[in-house]
Amino acid sequence: MFGLKIHQLPKLKNPNMIAALPDMGNVAGIGIDFLVKKLKTKLFAELYAFWPPAVSYEGGLVKYNQSSYKFHYSEKENLIIFSGEFNPSDPRRLYEICYEAVDMAKKLKVGTLFSIGAALRQPSPTEPKIFGATTSTKILNLLKKQNITLLDGKGQITGFNGLILGIAKEKNIDSICILGEIDNPNIIQPKAAQMILLTLFELLKITPPDMKDLEEEEKRKKFMEQQMNYMDNLMRRDKQPGIA
Question: Is residue 235 part of a domain?
Fold first, then answer.
């Protein structure tokens, strides 16, 4: 169960909506945070979660920070953005939050709902791909025209970023999922987030804002990976048997 607080509903005409929560490599989290910041969106509603089941303290003073999910909007881009701090693992909570997000989409007469996230692949020298899937057969051709690789065969898109597509379909809202390939789910993946965002901007006909922040984050990530590989090689070398 969640508590919804609406500050003021935006007056938009058939907006699109991007809804996603942090996932592998925090691809969706990075992407959504970038959109909220760079598109200068405005907060209009919050969904309070019963989490965490604790308080923190520092120097004897208790601090209480209740987690929340947020609805933002951009009047210029005619866009709604739904974001949050964590992706529930409990199925019941997951369904509840998906229904809350889609109910807001229905209330605002959203045209198309988008979700974004990561697709795990094996380490490879080839350039990572952008995958797509949709609940509408008429949108399939649109994805193909954008050179988005369709999710072929059979499989699952797990977590909020996948389930919300099904809930949107149930409520008669067309939805699209854009996924970026990553090969390490335990390291933040700003490059994958950037590739997804560029694809989204093209689909939504939005002029891409400056992406230097993501490019700098990718450089820092690569530097950290090089340092980790260097330390790993040193440790392996030290473990080699010596010669008496």
Answer: no
